[in-house]
Design a protein that fits this description.
7-stranded mixed β-sheet, alpha+beta, Beta Polymerase, domain 2
Length: 375
């Protein structure tokens, strides 16, 4: 399943219409039908509703110009709706194309004093040990913020709950503060993802120390790929926040830049953690190789000890196993250099005793040298 998901994400990158006019919109076959959510609020007003059609949502937005509107559209499978959205909110065709081709790197564009922001929401699958990322596209306006995503499930529920309960200052702030709030929640969810990856690294480390295997090595290599993917997402997030801090005051007021600066600090911290996990994952490969090498050395040590014990025993048995006669069968003459032990009545038990004693002396010598301590 994990391999299929990784291949699917690659296909999303490669599944592009080649040679078509820039800004042409097309919907992928697997796109979800759109769902329309609206939150309208200010200091004294709050209203939340899901609409059946885009026309009803737009009508509600126009009916309350004094409120801040969070237009949340989930699903892209309606080209007519996308075209209307582009016209009603003066969205450039190239920006809408980036929304639909939803494997863009995080970035920020300015168009007619409005912002178009792309960020990526992350989830870590503990079952498959893979990183899942979904693009979130954000458009800002004078009294609204539009978020578009391909999936129905996201990480923005804590922000929705803050708006519902009126906690904090979010209802008193301009729409640009909502842009920061969305960015902040998305970045906050990066930290649990990185924490889960850290726990998984510790599990792999323990697994390699206890029982290194090719499966563990494959898991380490897959983890390295996921961390590289995470790093490829986090670096543009940092650049994007830096670009937001450099925006003119008529787009992002100086009073709000302190919040974006805090989000920028979060991206720096995230990159530090990711780089640390990357180094740890690389060290896992070295740990695997050294563990396998140590296991091989232990095996060779055992074989060496066994060989060292049996080599002198084999030598003794070989010497006394030679079939040289002690006397001449014709003359009966005794040979001077024959083996007199062959005819001793206690020759065999004496020889066995000497062989056992030799083994005991060898084992004592190996123990004194500390060869058995690593077993």
């Amino acid at each position: 399943m994990a391999k299929k998901k990784r291949h699917h994400s690659r296909h999303k990158i490669l599944d592009r219409k080649i040679g078509i006019s820039p800004g042409t919109l097309f919907v992928a076959a697997e796109a979800h039908a759109p769902r329309y959510f609206l939150m309208s609020f200010n200091e004294h007003l709050f209203k939340e509703q899901e609409f059946v059609s885009y026309a009803e949502l737009l009508q509600q937005v126009k009916a309350q110009p004094q409120a801040t509107h969070w237009i949340d559209i989930r699903g892209y499978a309606d080209l007519t709706m996308l075209e209307l959205l582009k016209q009603d909110f003066e969205i450039h065709s190239l920006q809408m194309e980036d929304v639909i081709n939803d494997y863009q790197r995080p970035k920020v564009d300015e168009y007619k004093n409005k912002l178009f922001i792309i960020t990526r929401m992350l989830r870590w699958s503990k079952e498959q040990h893979t990183l899942e990322d979904v693009q979130l596209s954000i458009f800002s306006g004078p009294n609204y913020i539009i978020t578009l995503q391909s999936d129905y499930v996201d990480c923005l529920d804590p922000l929705r709950e803050r708006i519902r309960t009126g906690k904090g200052i979010i209802r008193q702030r301009p729409p640009m503060y909502m842009v920061y709030a969305v960015q902040d929640v998305v970045l906050d969810f990066y930290f649990p993802v990185i924490a889960d990856i850290g726990i998984y690294i510790e599990e792999l480390e323990q697994k390699i120390l206890e029982r290194p295997s090719k499966q563990a090595l494959r898991q380490v290599l897959d983890l390295k790929n996921e961390i590289i993917k995470l790093r490829r997402i986090a670096w543009p997030e940092r650049d994007k926040m830096n670009d937001l801090l450099r925006m003119e005051a008529n787009i992002i007021p100086d009073t709000l830049k302190v919040y974006f600066r805090d989000a920028y600090d979060h991206t720096i911290q995230l990159i530090d953690l990711i780089d640390s996990h990357k180094e740890m994952s690389m060290s896992l490969v070295e740990l695997y190789m050294s563990t396998v090498s140590n296991r091989m050395n232990e095996i060779m040590k055992v074989l060496t000890i066994i060989s060292s014990i049996f080599i002198p025993l084999s030598f003794i048995a070989g010497v006394y196993g030679m079939n040289f006669s002690r006397e001449d069968p014709e003359t009966g003459k005794i040979f001077r250099f024959s083996m007199p032990e062959l005819y001793l009545p206690y020759g065999y038990p004496i020889l066995v005793f000497l062989m056992v004693l030799l083994v005991a002396l060898q084992l004592y010598f190996f123990w004194r040298r500390g060869w058995f301590r690593s077993f």
